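Fold it.
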Amino acid sequence: MSKFKEFLARKDVVISGKRYGIDALGAMAQGLFCSLLIGTILNTLGKQLGLEVLVTVGGYASAMSGAAMAVAIGYALKAPPLVLFSLVTVGYAANALGSTTLDGGSGAGGPLAVLFIAIIAAELGKLVSKETKIDILVTPLVTILVGVGLSAWWAPAIGTAASSVGDFVEWATVLQPFWMGILVSVVIGVALTLPISSAAICAAIGLTGLAGGAAVAGCCANMVGFAFLSFRENRWGGLISQGLGTSMLQMGNIVRNPRIWLPAIFTSAITGPLATCLFQFQMNDPSGGVASGMGTCGMVGPIGVYAGWVNDVANGAKAAITAMDWVAMALLCFILPALLTWAFGLLLRRMGWIREGDLTLS
């Protein structure tokens, strides 16, 4: 057993929740962002501006999402070059087969299938890497055969399971929009700020519709909320880095004083049900829900909502983009997160729960 552990250590195979649940998952979200999400944005811009070249480029980017996710995962797992390059095929197969269900229908499990299968293929590829004199053949063969084999075996079932979870969340949100609006908004908002990937979670279960709208509201409550809550400490640099970057920058401060998180959580518990009950705010972006977990990071959340509007108008599900749509977006994504979080923060500062310097970014 000790020799096997030494072998794993030599191959840098670290079986841990952090390596797979944080490092790999976070990297997968970056790969998804650089392919499917960017592709969706380019496609939407191209259609709105009448630039066919952007539509074409966006299509190419979106088509490579599986490969991009798998390579990103391999990079996070510190895979050697031959393993990393072989993951292109693995990611493509896992994403394609995970996007179907067991009965041949359309599934939402592509990203989730890529996560599980790319991790296994990458780790097994690392184990055989440079162990033979014909490494140029053995390593790619093992990585690709394992990855594609598992894709054929597991991916449709993962696609079915992911679709079922996503459908259940959407169904429950329609059935109980108030309580599910709170639950989805708070949970996805918290996931956004934690060192895990809310975008990958939303993409994995295809979180769209009313539930996707609540997720957007929760993410914006954390990002815009922390940006304005900490303005007196971090000024304009903090406003931009958190409001357009990530609220994850506050994790160190949250560990030191968890109560600084309460204003953003309270705000998400308000904006979530407002999104589901009052505004019927939906996220129907063609990327399958990844934008639901992005918030205002690079303005991806609002852009995803807009792309969903355009898509709904095109397929007849929506007559037109209305003034109330824009009012809802402005209130839920920017105005209410800023005002409510600042107000809750002011109250907690006066109570002594948030002290001067608690929100300062190092």
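The chain has two domains: 2-162, 176-351.
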